[in-house]
Amino acid sequence: MKVRTFAAIAGILATATAVTAGAEKPKVPFRNFSALEVENFQNPKYQTKAPMPDDWLPLIREDITQRVIATHRFQRVMDFEDPKVTKPDTERVLVLRGTVVEFTHGSQAARFLVGMGAGAGKIVVNCEFVDKATGDVVFTRKVDGKVIGTGQSTEGAIKGISKEIAGVINSSW
Amino acid sequence: MRALIIGVLLVLASVAPLAAGPGTLRPFSTIEVMEIENKRNAQGKKLPDEWVPRLREQIRYAVGSQHLFHRVEDQVDAVVKGEDTGRTIRLQVRITDFSGVQTQPTIKAAVVFLDKATGEKILEHNVDARLYFDQGATTSALIKLTNKVGDLVKNNW
Is A161 at the interface with chain B, CB within 8 A? Predict the structure, then answer.
């Protein structure tokens, strides 16, 4: 009886894992694309708890670009051609778009003086990976970056976003 | 061996005018700020292009607020006394590295001053704007870079 119950639980867990893993996969593996273009994210007004400065948008774009370049997955990322990746005969471009859906500026002073998560800053972005040629959305993912450490500016949350996106690209390859 | 020593001396002699010091920039009464080159380095790093006009404006301010030149581009500085030599120096900045968003971000740049009339390189210096401790934001690194360019002008006046 115990063995049967254990087998049933294991089976349910395996199915759930497979379903979750399936949901996490893009429609087309990213390896089918040879180039990545990162657009400035949308930063809608009055929809986030606090306004994220617009001049962070190019910084986010650039930080993501640099993180993705460092993965050496794509032959071209924005205007950078990676000499470590073979150039294909035909380029197929994946476009990364995103919308900032949550922004909490937090407080650097609280992070420094109180700690333990007080004054945390956070950015949450809904990302879309789009096939540039067809316009098809290949993959969507919500990513976030947080800053809780003492002495760090809220801008540090950008690093979390770009790291997560680089991770998404690696796991979707 | 002698040829080697002579070669080294010649190299040092050619570098000497760029080693600079007080008085290097004093013959110039106008500064044109400037060309900023922001191309990706071998690791694919550069500043966001949208930040370049802002950097340019900050450097203009860092140089102009010292009241050393009669003119900073088309802006006449009425505070500056002394002879207007009519000579113009051009400031070029080439971004060589940007760490991206980090706890302590870094921006590196090669700064070159050229005599506008002759194209001669008057001063060349690598500037490293690295932040430490609680200075976390990239904007702070940008300010540090501009301050260092301002200091470069002041130290060579």
Answer: no
**CA proximity to A66, closest of B35, B107, B109:** B107
B137 vs A16, which has greater pLDDT?
A: B137
The ipTM is 0.76
The residues that bridge with B37 in the sheet, in sequence order, are B94
Cβ of residue B44 closer than 8 Å to a chain A Cβ: yes
Q: How far is CA A141 from CA A124, A168, B14, in A?
A: 11, 8, 57
Q: Are A152 and B136 a contacting pair at CB < 8 A?
A: yes
- As given in the structure block, the two tokens for residue A35 are 């180039």
pTM of the model: 0.81
Per-residue pLDDT of A68-88, as tens digits, reads 999 999 999 999 999 999 999
Is A59 within 8 Å of B101 when comparing Cβ atoms? Answer: yes
Give the position of tokens 């979390």: A160
Residue B9 one-letter amino acid: L
Domains of chain A, start order: 27-171 (3.40.50)
Q: Domains of chain B by range and CATH?
A: 2-155 (3.40.50)
Q: Determine the longest span between alpha carbons in chain A, in angstroms.
A: 63
